[in-house]
Amino acid sequence: MAAAKTPTSVIFESLQGSWRLKRNLNSGLPGFPSGIFEGTATFSPRVPTAHTTAAELLYAEQGELKTENGFTLRANRKYIYRYNAVEDKISAWFVKEDTKSDEGKEEVDYLFHDIETEKVNSSAATVGRGEHLCEKDMYWAYYEFRMPQVMEEGEKGMDVFGVRYKVKGPAKDYTSDTAYERTFGSHVTVRLEDALLRAGKPNDFRDRLFNSLDDGRSLRSLRAVSRVLYDLADHQPGRLFRELYIKTPLQEPEPSTSLELIVPFCRRLQITLLEKSLLDERKDTQSTDDRLSQSGTRSVSSTTVGNNAWGRLGQASGRRATAGLLEQDSMAQKLNSPNEQYSQHAARRCWLNVFSRCHQLETLELCVHGDSGWPGRTEVESGIVDIRNALEWSDVPKLREVKLVPIHAMGIVHLRWSGLSAFGPVASLNNDLLIWQRLHLLDIRLQNPLVNGKLSRAQQLMFKKILYDYLRSFAPTLCRLHFLWLDGEGPSPLRLHTEAGLEDRRPLYWHSLRELRLGNITQAHGSIELVGDRFPKLEKLQMLRPHARPSGLNGDDSWVDVLPCKAPSDPSTMTRRTGSSLYSRDTEGESFFRPSGISSTSRTIPVMLDLGKESE
Q: Compositional bias (Polar residues) spans (predicted)?
């Protein structure tokens, strides 16, 4: 029959696990630092090493001490705690110095102090006291353990406790107050760590858990719980860095070693392009590495490596691409000042070094915050050209999705890659070899320059022609197109050939398109009528719901499925309809569409289902 547990034995069991700690050091001597120490600590069970000991815990802490004079010091320590069941007593012991670095083989040295526990009346706290004489300096230890008043069977209880040391003597004079808080609930961390450490085969518990947390954020949060989970997550860095975020312009145009080390694991890369003045307003001085991120905090732990480490990740391929692009661009740089030449050279080399290592990249998202008017080529547009050129000169074999969310008019101008009108050096005269011809998805959320009055008529016509040419370059190969106007309705990308000044252009024929999303477009009726003839493989057509919230544009709830019937092949037989928008046109009792999921009393039809009927 098992012996009944005592309050002291329950406290000892409750220590097991991982803890966050914060320690205040106050020294009365100038030679001993005062400050705040923050870090983590673990109490890990181990095989008892004395016959009088019923259980042992290895205590290990590590963290940083920030002193009052501004210094930051890394520190760690280890003790061994023992529980003697005969005496019902906890004791703390030093670890032999020459075994501290030998993980799992730490040896007990000599006694630090015994902990005499007693329950404090009218309080949930149990206090413990001990003392130790270190030569001529005296240590007084005071523990305060806070156990819950009620514990369910199997619960270990304690989630917080504190320790105070008062040290007085000829060599030392300080107090140390430490607060401990469990990092992951009661004993969950230790049990989880044990299960993950035992697992290691493909498709076992660890593999399935990490796969389910592989969203670019959750795994990094788990990594911060304890040292064991930190090491387990770092063992497979590809899971940690599948989503990366970069903001430009980079304050250091030279490529970052940490960035080059982690981009080979990246599957989704978001690059935000801002004017430098806007970036300075949003953030104070910040290093390139600090602008990388994956969940909420948008920061990636920096990796300290030697300067030669990036060479092992494909230096040769990056050099070849860099040399080719910079050689092709040398004539253009002759027209610039020396400072501009260096800046352009460094920026393009940086992006080439990044993209030449992106062997797993599947999705590239450009968030371009440029002038929605017609500003010409600013640093934002120069950044777009650098990124586009670097992509074309790099081998990114798995890139299949490009999202321009948002993009402005001049962004489209500088993203052109087909024909002689493209900016920058040409990577290949064979368009079939370019990365753009391998894309499956193109997602464009375009800031409408036609509604703010910033463009002259000539500029509006020029922009429509450029947009038509840009979309035409994707028409033969693209599988999925998402197109949304921001800031107001704009012309349908399917009917640009009907705009004034573009009547000589042919309608675009989308040979491979299977999915189409359109939002905030005019002439929605006419756009859908073209679907039958111009999209032979189309399987899915969606329109943006009226009054859809910007925060929900990525979800299916903001989009309405439209199932077109085959439209008449002769456009001249169709009756012209009035009304600029699918979302505002009243049916007047007749409709080309059969509303689905809409009240029969509604006269505004946001979804079109039947194109077979002609209105009278």
A: 570-584
